[in-house]
Amino acid sequence: MEFEEAYRKYFNDVYLYVRRLSGDEHIAEEITSDTFYKALYSINKFRGDCDMRVWLCQIAKNSYFAYIKKRRNTANLDDEEVLNLIDDNILIDDAIIQKDESMQIKKILHTISEPYREVFMWRVFAELSFKQIGQIFGKSDNWACVTYHRSKEMINEDWRKTTMRNECNIIRDILPLYAEDMVSDDTISFVEEHLQACAECSTMYERIKEGGIIMKNENKSTEQEVVNTLKKLRKKVFKRFCIIFLAICIGVVGLLATLQVFPVYRVFQNKWDTSFTSEERWMLAYIGTPGDREIATEILNYADNIVFSDVTHTYEENLKLYGELGRYPFDLHYFDETRGERKALYETHSIELLSAHIDENHGYIFVEHSQQAIGENGEAVAGHGEILSLWEIEKDADGNWKVISTREGP
Question: Which domain holds residue 243?
């Protein structure tokens, strides 16, 4: 018996049966429509060992009980909880309430032909009865019902294909792990169930077990998306690395610049030097203001070019000429072979300003200096390496700065 013939012959009987069960004509029409849809989908399962009417009424009764059960179980649940109760065999009418699935169904609608698409939209979105839909097309309500059910079957078929395709992509990603027994028990069940239903994935699994094929993503667009994502990630990582490297460079430059003005390390280099007090050593932590360093530089230039370079006077004469600084110059006449000393021909020296702390009339400057007397063969006859010295300075009555005391480190 053709389905359309069965629909025309038994529709009213099933409708009246459901109406007696429900007491509501709208529910009866909905359940009857659903009954014939299920019958259309499973007509091959009808063995003919009972009357067609009985078979249809049994389907209608089960559909009505499922409807009542669902109404009672979900009456007080929110939308999210209701969605959690819907299983994989959900009908298109129910799936339409799910946002993500609704969008997918709308996409599928654009792929099916007329009048199936329009009938489906009038029924689902406009909620018209089959009689009203038939009137729109100038057809019978039976035609509207059959056309609607066929459109649902088309959508269901596309839906299953889409779901299977998405599931296949997931399965193929985890097949290598599944083959190595590196997945959870739940994942194993999921993969095995899919492999039983999908011959293509099952064949791929067998190939993996036999030869260990390299899994390739057949979806080129997805593969390109992965490549693009990796490129973006690489650019982002490189950019972040450059920012961090630049920040480190700026930090190092900043630290070096700071140490040029605040050379704190000098304090600790000389922390065991008992020649200076703790307060005096901390003067080394700051090089001094530009004004203080200008005054100190004038004093060092005088010491460098005049005092340290004077090698023609005796120690006593130097003290009279240069005051406290007179103790630094060499007396080359002192290095006379007749006095038991090796002869010195000239002297070399260096002097460097480390810090300057000067107020209006008084101050302190730290200097580092070295001196050597050089003999005939270019050897050092006498002298010393770098020595740290603290010079106390004072302004005299004429406004000139003088070194009034000196103290050397060890």
Answer: 220-261
